[in-house]
Amino acid sequence: MSKVLEFGDTILLVLRKKPLIFLHWYHHVLTMNYAIMSYSHDIAYNSWITWMNFTVHSIMYGYYMLRSMGIRVPAWVAKNITTMQILQFIITHLILFHVGYLVSQGVEVDSTPTVFWSCLAMEFSYVVLFGNFYFQSYIKGGGKKFMQEKTKKQ
């Protein structure tokens, strides 16, 4: 259900005529499809993924709320939120690698190969895309582009 609610920020962006970057809609659509595909399997590792996602998204949407209210938030907050998202995806990989190891040892798990490999591929794509976003926004050119855009908006 939370994945459906997260489309609300996409709708708000469209209504406010803000640009939608590829990363934004790709992440929402792919995660929603994965949630639908894996929901009926009641997979234990999804609990870990869900709680990490909830934690990061609570901070992120709190940040968006403050910004939408016109409250100035230091630029480093956005950078740290992106860092938390990337760490979330890396931790998810570690969890999935452990599950893969268990399966290789003959341990029965509550996931199907399709769901497992889909999750691994999805999370890998997120590391690549969010990593690229981080590089482009905060590192390339010393992060000057990000700081200039943040200064203009505030």
Compile the SSE list and pairings.
Elements: H1 2-15, H2 22-39, H3 44-68, H4 75-104, H5 113-139, H6 144-153
Helix pairs in contact: 1-2, 2-5, 3-4, 4-5
Protein model, in words:
The chain is mainly alpha-helical and 154 residues long. It has one domain. Helix content is 81%, strand content 0%. It is built from six helices and no strands. It has helices at 2-15, 22-39, 44-68, 75-104, 113-139, 144-153. Helix 1 (2-15) runs antiparallel to helix 2, helix 2 (22-39) runs antiparallel to helix 5 and helix 3 packs antiparallel against helix 4. The longest helix is centred in the middle third of the chain and has 30 residues, at 75-104. The chain is elongated and about 55 Å long.
Q: Span between N and C termini?
A: 33 Å
The average pLDDT value, as a whole number, equals: 86
Strand content: under 5%
What number of structural domains do the residues give? 1
How many DSSP-defined strands?
A: 0
Short description:
This protein has 154 residues and is mainly alpha-helical. It has six helices and no strands.
Characteristics:
154 residues; mainly alpha; 6 helices; 81% helix; elongated; fatty acid biosynthesis; transferase; lipid biosynthesis; ELO_fam
